[in-house]
Specification:
This protein is mainly alpha-helical and about 350 residues long. It contains 14 helices and two strands.
C-alpha cells in the first residue's frame, strides 16, 4: 500500500464526493458516488469494515424517519398507496409512493455525506491540517480543533459508559437505557473538549499570530469567508455564473491574505513538512475534473443531478458524461493499488 495522501488532496476529494448529495437527489449520481466511496474505503483501509453496522443502523433510522415524515406531511403525487382520514390534522390525506421515494433518496444522500466525511476523517491527520493554516486563520484553527475533537471525544465517552454498564451487568438494551446516558456522555465529551481548549490556550496556540494581523487587513478575512459562503449558496441554487464570480472574488481576497501573512509572519516551525507526490497530483486532478463536470452538468442539464418525484413519478435522468466524471471519485483506490508515492 502506498503512503497516505496529502490532507489537501483528501479535502478536494471530499468536495467532489459530497457535491452530488448536496445539489440534488437524482439516484443515478448518488449510487455512482456511493459505489466509488465504498471502493475507496475497501482499498484504502482494507482492515476496517467498508460500512460498519453502526452506519447501517443509522441509515435505516434516517430512512425510516425521512420516509415517515414525507408520507405524513406531503400529500402529492400520482401514485396513491392509501388515504388517511381528512379529519386527522396535518397527516390526513393521500399517502403516495412519490413521498416514499423522495424520503428514501434523502436518506441515501445523507448516507453519502456521512461516508464521504467519515472516510476523510479517518485518513486525514488533523494536526497537519491545522499547521497548513495561515497566521490569520490560527484563531479559527484553534476553535476548529476544539470543535472537531468534541464529537470523537463524545463517542469515546459513549464507549466508556457502555463498557462500565456491561461490567456492572446493566447492558444498553432499550431506548430508555440509551436516554439515561445522554447527559453523562455529553458531560464527559464537553469536559474533554474544554481540557483540550485549556491546553491550547496555555501553549498560546494562535495567540501571537492573531496580534500580528494589521488592523487594515482584519476585515479582509471575514469578507473572503462571507463571499465563499455566498458563492456556495449560489452554486446550490443553480446560479453557476454568479457563484463563479463571487467565489473568484472570495478566493482572491483569501489568497491575498495568505501571501500578506507570509511577509509579516515571524516564522512557524514544523516537525515534519508535507510532501506532494504524483499520487496526490493524480487524485487532486481527478477530483477537480469531477467537480468541473458536476458544475457543467448543473449549468446545462440540472435534471441529471436534481430529481423531483412530484407531481409525477418518472424514471430519473442519467447522463453518461456525469457518470464518467463521478467515477473519478474512485481515484484514491486506484493510486493506492498502483501508485508508487514518488515525489511530484
Amino acid at each position: 500500500m502506498s503512503r497516505r495522501l496529502d490532507p489537501r488532496t483528501w479535502i478536494v476529494w471530499w468536495v467532489a464526493s459530497s457535491l452530488p448529495a448536496l445539489v440534488g437527489r437524482n439516484p443515478v449520481p448518488l449510487i455512482t458516488v456511493l459505489v466509488a466511496i465504498a471502493l475507496v474505503r475497501a482499498v484504502v483501509q482494507p482492515d476496517n469494515q467498508i460500512v460498519s453496522p453502526v452506519i447501517i443502523r443509522l441509515f435505516l433510522i434516517l430512512a425510516g424517519i425521512s420516509v415517515l415524515f414525507n408520507i405524513l406531511t406531503v400529500h402529492a403525487g400520482n401514485i396513491v398507496l392509501f388515504t388517511l382520514p381528512d379529519r386527522l390534522p396535518l397527516i390526513g390525506g393521500e399517502v403516495t409512493l412519490n413521498a416514499v421515494v423522495y424520503g428514501f433518496l434523502s436518506a441515501l444522500a445523507i448516507l453519502t455525506l456521512i461516508l464521504a466525511g467519515l472516510t476523510v476523517a479517518e485518513q486525514i491527520a488533523w494536526p497537519q491540517v491545522m499547521r497548513m493554516l495561515p497566521d490569520a486563520l490560527l484563531g479559527f484553527g484553534a476553535a476548529g480543533s476544539i470543535a472537531l475533537a468534541f464529537f470523537p471525544q463524545m463517542i469515546a465517552s459513549f464507549r466508556e459508559i457502555r463498557e462500565a454498564r456491561l461490567i456492572r451487568g446493566a447492558p444498553l438494551i432499550g431506548l430508555r437505557d440509551y436516554a439515561t446516558i445522554v447527559a453523562p456522555m455529553l458531560a464527559l465529551g464537553l469536559d474533554r473538549a474544554v481540557t483540550l481548549s485549556e491546553l491550547l490556550e496555555v501553549r498560546a496556540f494562535g495567540g501571537s499570530a492573531a496580534q500580528r494581523v494589521p488592523a487594515t487587513r482584519r476585515w479582509v478575512l471575514p469578507a473572503a469567508v462571507t463571499a465563499l459562503l455566498v458563492a456556495a449558496y449560489l452554486f446550490l441554487t443553480a446560479s453557476t455564473m454568479q457563484a463563479a464570480l463571487v467565489g473568484a472574488v472570495g478566493m482572491a481576497m483569501l489568497v491575498w491574505t495568505v501571501f500578506a501573512d507570509r511577509s509579516t509572519s515571524s516564522g512557524r516551525t514544523r516537525y515534519q513538512r508535507l510532501t506532494w507526490t504524483r499520487s496526490d497530483s493524480v487524485v487532486a486532478s481527478a477530483s477537480a475534473v469531477a467537480i468541473a463536470v458536476i458544475a457543467w452538468t448543473l449549468a446545462t442539464h440540472p435534471d441529471a443531478l436534481r430529481y423531483e418525484p412530484y407531481p409525477d413519478l418518472t424514471w430519473p435522468a442519467a447522463r453518461i458524461p456525469l457518470v464518467a466524471g463521478l467515477c473519478l471519485v474512485a481515484s484514491p483506490a486506484i493510486v493506492t493499488l498502483y501508485g508508487e508515492g514518488d515525489h511530484a
